[in-house]
Design goal:
This protein is of the alpha+beta class. Helices cover 36% and strands 28% of the residues. It contains 13 helices and 19 strands. The strands form 4 sheets. It has an 8-stranded mixed beta sheet. Strands 12-10-11-17-19-18 form a 6-stranded mixed beta sheet. The longest helix has 21 residues. It starts with a strand and ends with a helix. 38% of the residues are buried.
């Protein structure tokens, strides 16, 4: 089986070696913008991912903290490592030596968890180099770049799809790389969900099986209402996630002719805030970056306890994300819009 090399804009290199077909397929679907077959002369990489033996690991600690977090930190192979556990056994090991090494089991269900840990490692290497994996959306038109930031569910994709339909070019839907004041794409895919199809009348006819996806979403919403009425509240989020319906599509399949931009300096930033009654208007840069930093932590909250623990290690990057935001985005003018003001936002962007 051919190994793959993932080269993320010359900032991070990842080798995917000897992975089972299902895991390999999942990772390459997420990182297809950067994947190519690995060559003998590729040299050292920043992150090495492969199946491996966990011989030499200490037994899983039997304490409440480990059970609650699902991981523990221990020396492994001469470097500090984070060990993710499943059913009281090691499932993934991430060791932070000169090269970040990720060892994984080969069980079929590990792919999503492995991708999450790979993102975690990519974020660490980027931080070491003064770059950031930024959660947000971005679009470009006539040399001007719009950066959309907000928490998950903040309508970023909805605004982005509306802009792409009107002739803007794609840069990001969910994640992008911020480095030296410029934005670089991380994925070509846009995640289309039922509420996007319901809100944009043109979208179901454009997306493959869009009408079917919309029907599934409406059934899911009815199911969620029933669950919320009759089931314990702690059980509802898991059931809603289990019935999630989404399509991950290349941007060219959604808006034919749309180009993917790269290396653009943001000219204006927009913070999308959930709820209504938000004071829409210009934000001071300091306040905008405070909110943006909070949104970044919320976007990667699944690994935040691990990130806090790793920041204590000798090789940990520490709290650098805010410093990187200050260094790269402090000169960008920021505006804030609530969900009830999205028509005003789209109207002002059309006039730009």
């Amino acid at each position: 089986m051919t190994d793959l090399l993932v080269d993320i804009h010359g900032l991070v290199t990842v080798r995917l070696a000897g992975l089972p077909a299902g895991i390999r397929r999942h990772l390459t679907a997420q990182l297809n913008l950067f994947c190519r077959p690995a060559l003998r002369d590729d040299g050292c990489v920043d992150i090495d991912v492969r199946p491996g033996s966990f011989a030499g690991l200490p037994p899983v600690p039997r304490d409440a903290l480990t059970d609650r977090l699902g991981f523990f930190v221990t020396p492994f192979g001469g470097a500090p490592a984070v060990v993710l556990i499943r059913r009281r056994r090691p499932d993934l090991v991430v060791s932070f030596g000169e090269t970040v090494r990720i060892l994984t089991t080969e069980r079929s269900g590990v792919a999503r968890r492995l991708y999450g840990m790979l993102l975690f490692a990519i974020r660490k290497v980027l931080a070491d180099r003064g770059a950031l994996l930024l959660h947000g959306a971005a679009a470009v038109r006539d040399g001007r770049t719009l950066l959309l930031a907000g928490p998950r569910g903040g309508k970023k994709t909805l605004v982005l799809l509306s802009l792409l339909k009107e002739g803007w070019h794609y840069l990001s839907d969910d994640k992008m790389v911020l480095h030296q004041g410029r934005l670089y794409p991380f994925q070509r895919q846009i995640t289309i969900r039922g509420h996007h199809l319901a809100a944009l009348p043109w979208l179901p006819a454009t997306v493959d099986q869009g009408a079917r996806l919309l029907r599934r979403w409406r059934r899911r919403e009815r199911f969620r209402c029933i669950c919320g009425r009759w089931l314990p509240q702690w059980l509802v989020p898991a059931l809603v996630r289990a019935t999630d319906c989404a399509a991950h599509l290349d941007v060219a399949r959604i808006v034919p002719g749309c180009q993917v931009a790269s290396g653009c300096r943001p000219d204006i930033g927009v913070l999308l805030t959930p709820g209504s009654g938000v004071d829409n208007g210009l934000l001071p840069a300091e306040r905008a970056l405070d909110l943006l930093h909070t949104m970044q932590r919320l976007a990667f909250m699944d690994t935040w306890p691990m990130e806090a623990m790793v920041s204590l290690l000798p090789t940990g990057p520490g709290g650098v994300s805010r410093r990187i935001l200050d260094a790269n985005l402090s000169q960008v003018p920021w505006r804030r819009f609530g969900n009830d003001a999205l028509p005003n936002l789209l109207g002002s962007l059309r006039r730009c």
